[in-house]
């Protein structure tokens, strides 16, 4: 059996199928890892309030959320990296003029700067969460925001990338882009957590499938891309397992010798 290790799992397309279901074998594998005294953690682009039920179901209290901007270790906030508000205000004004809505996000909630918009509904609906942004155009005032969503068709985010160098833009849906602090990533959040936990590089593992997992999978020594992952993601991972719909997690854990 491998030495005690820490394993970080992405959620969408990794732990959860594309129908946002948790496969039975995946759940069993997570609890088997815990029985072997491995540390199981989540690394996701989601906000904490978007996967609270999953954390409870899997009994996980260590996670990297917002692609590394809000990190929790054993139920306690360990590290935060909020967005700079002045350039975000300017971006929001520009987006409003382009009919590109934005959604402001902190660790507790998310609020849209417009009352309603088809792009917001179309993309948020795909997450299948019981949480939809309500309208508050001033939600950014007086609070830390860890991510903002910009809603625009593919390619139209280029004008914002050129104008706002404080931010990184990561597309996750045909009409939606994550706005993150420049240089922020899951890899940075994982680094903060493993510093505290003290796991050696050879005892660190990560599973993912999306473009926002690329830095994590190219940084963590034992990285596993899902079979359903983007080809660019597979190219940076050490291993490639089966698809999430084909028990990819349990197969991958066996592949790397953790099960």
From TrEMBL:
Pfam families per UniProt: Hydrolase_3
Gene3D superfamilies: 3.30.1240.10, HAD superfamily/HAD-like (3.40.50.1000)
Segments forming a coiled coil: none
PROSITE patterns in the record: COF_1, COF_2
GO cellular component terms attached to this protein's record: cytosol
Domain of life: Bacteria
Molecular-function GO term, any one: phosphatase activity
SUPFAM superfamilies assigned to the protein according to its UniProt record, in alphabetical order: HAD-like
Protein name: Phosphatase
Native species: Anaerobacillus alkalidiazotrophicus
């Amino acid at each position: 059996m491998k030495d005690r290790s820490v394993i970080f799992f992405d959620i969408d397309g990794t732990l959860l199928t594309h129908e946002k279901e948790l496969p039975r074998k995946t759940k069993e594998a997570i609890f088997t890892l815990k029985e072997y005294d491995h540390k199981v953690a989540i690394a996701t682009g989601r906000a904490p309030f978007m996967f609270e039920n999953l954390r409870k179901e899997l009994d996980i209290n260590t996670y990297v959320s917002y692609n590394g901007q809000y990190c929790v270790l054993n139920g306690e906030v360990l590290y935060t990296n909020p967005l700079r508000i002045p350039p975000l205000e300017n971006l929001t004004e520009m987006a409003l003029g382009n009919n590109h809505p934005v959604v402001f996000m902190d660790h507790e909630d998310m609020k849209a700067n417009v009352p309603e918009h088809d792009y917001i509904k179309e993309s948020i609906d795909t997450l299948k969460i019981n949480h939809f942004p309500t309208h508050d155009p001033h939600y950014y005032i007086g609070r830390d925001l860890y991510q903002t969503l910009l809603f625009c068709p593919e390619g139209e985010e280029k004008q914002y990338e050129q104008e706002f160098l404080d931010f990184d833009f990561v597309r996750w849906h045909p009409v939606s882009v994550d706005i993150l602090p420049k240089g922020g990533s899951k890899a940075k959040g994982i680094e903060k957590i493993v510093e505290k936990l003290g796991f050696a590089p050879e005892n660190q593992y990560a599973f993912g499938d999306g473009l926002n997992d690329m830095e994590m999978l190219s940084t963590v020594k034992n990285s596993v891309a899902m079979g359903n992952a983007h080809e660019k993601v597979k190219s940076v991972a050490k291993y490639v397992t089966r698809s999430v719909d084909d028990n990819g997690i349990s197969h991958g854990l066996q592949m790397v010798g953790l099960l």
